[in-house]
Every structure is written in C-alpha cells, then in structure tokens.
Amino acid sequence: MTDPSPAQQIRNLCDQISDLIETIEPAAPVPTYGGSESGGGAAAPKAPMTDNMVIARNNLKQTLTSWALLIVEEGHHNYTGRDETTAIAAWIYGYADWMAHHPAFDDFITEIQHDMRAIHDELNRHIDDRRFCGWHNGHPVYARHDQASVIIDGTTYTPQQGQDRLKAGIADVDLTAKECALVLTQVHGIKTTAKQILKLLEVDNRNRATGALGQYEGLHPVGRKGPGPKSPLLFRFQEVLTRTQQSGCRSGQKAG
User: Fold this and answer.
1) 100 CB contacts (<8 Å, ≥6 apart)?
2) How many other C-beta atoms can be found within 10 angstroms of the C-beta atom of residue 216?
3) CA distance 256 to 243
4) CA distance 93 to 98
5) Relative orientation angle of helices 6-24 and 105-125, to the nearest 10 degrees
6) How does pLDDT run across 176-197, given as a tens digit for each residue?
7) Which end of the chain, N or C, is surrounded by fewer C-beta atoms within 10 Å?
8) Quick one: three-class SS letters along the chain?
9) Does pTM surpass 0.90?
10) Pairing of strands 221-224, 139-144
C-alpha cells in the first residue's frame, strides 16, 4: 500500500482532529442545581476536562490558527469558519492541496501531530476518570468518577443507572460503527474501534462474494445515519456485539 499524498495527509489529520475533539468534548448537558424553581435548574455542558487537557486542547487550536493565518496571508484567502478547533481544521482541509505544496508542509504535519499526541496522552492517562452512559440530543453523555447524575434523553439518572439502562435496552438500536465501538468498549468491556467493526464488514462482504458465507450471515449495515452516500453506516448493535464476540477481535488485533 502506497503512502497517502501530502494533500491527503493533511486531510487525514483534519478528519482525525474532528474525531478527537468530539471524544474529549461531549456536548451533552448534566444537571446543575440552584436554578429558580420555575426554571427547573440550569443545564450546562460538563466535559471531563483536566487542567492539562485544557492546555493541550488550546495548544492544538493555537497551532491550527497559526497555520490558517499563514494560508490567509500567503495564499490571499479569506477565513470563513468559526473560531473553533474543528471549524479551523475543516477550513484547512479545504486548502490541503495549497498547503501540500508549501515549503513548510513538513513543519505543519509535525506540529499538528505533536499537539494531537499530547491530547491522546492526556486522554489515555485519565481514561478511567469517566464512563460512557448513553446519548442526549444525539451527543454522547459521559460521567466523571465523582459525578452524581447525568441527563440521558431528558431523564436524570445516576451514572450506573445510565449504563445499566444502556446495556439492557440497546440490543435492537441502530448505531454507527463509532457508536457501537463506544458501547462495546465502555459498557461491555470489549475494547474495539470503529475501524475494526468496518473491517469485519469488509471481511464478511468478501466471504459472501466468494460463497464462503451465506447471503444472510455475518454483519450487514441496516442503513445510513443521514442522507447521502457518504453518511456513516448504521448497524444493529446486537449483530455487531455477536459478530465481535465471534471474531475475538480486540483493539490491536486483526479482524477475522
């Protein structure tokens, strides 16, 4: 397999930034008390942030901003995105071909990878400080180790109740590969990734094509999350759970 082109390296990094920021900054609210009785209390975003994570996140944004300014000034382009890390990365994605021919291309890759690595290191260091409990308004809900309650689909639960509810009621729910991987890892204790789930689908499709697997056997997507052919595939969670258990696939192992 050949290495990706310089422009594709930039696009890949920008996509990875979007996934990384989504992981460390879930936007789902948890209840905060002390609001007026008529207001029922306020809802505020509570991200599982450490001081070092805040610093690492801000460093990545500052690095992206500096490279966006270079594109604006030297490429004579107007910045049209929001003042947010993912928006800046998405804007740079659109100028990947221009940046790929810039003399500072290697510096761009090195600096972005360095800042992303710092976030990954901090995330891995504190991965046990939070638990995945479900979704609220389409966003993942996490609880810190000292958190007493969370809001899931408009209802308040303890973190354990949220996980128990999720484990009991998710079998027939359709989820993306990323969402399936999250539930498998944090609720069922089966460490896997979205890429491994999609690899299982690739293996099953190949085996069905050669006749090694029956037409209705193995993993099948049930649709897409959103319109358009590029929207994420949806899978019935129970089928992914069963297929993953059959394969023995874990993070760091090949799907088979």
Assistant:
1) 5, 6, 7, 9, 10
2) 7
3) 10
4) 10
5) 30
6) 998 899 899 888 888 888 899 9
7) N
8) CCCCCHHHHHHHHHHHHHHHHHHHCCCCEEEECCCCCCCCCEEEECCCCCHHHHHHHHHHHHHHHHHHHHHHHHHCCCCCCCCCHHHHHHHHHCCHHHHHCCCCHHHHHHHHHHHHHHHHHHHHHCHHHEEEEEEECCEEEEEECCCCCEEECCEEECHHHHHHHHHHHCCCCEEEHHHHHHHHHHCCCCCCCHHHHHHHHHHHHHHHHHCCCCCCCCCCEEEECCCCCCCCEEEEHHHHHHHHHHHCCCCCCCCC
9) no
10) unpaired
Structure token pair of residue 120: 């990954």
Question: Which of 79, 64, 51, 68 shows the shortest CA–CA distance to 111?
Answer: 64
- Beta-bridge mates of residue 72: none
Phi, psi of 240 (to 5 degrees): -65, -40
Q: Which residues have C-beta within 8 Å of that of residue 116, sequence separation ≥ 6?
A: 13, 16, 17, 20, 60
Quick one: pLDDT at residue 229? 84
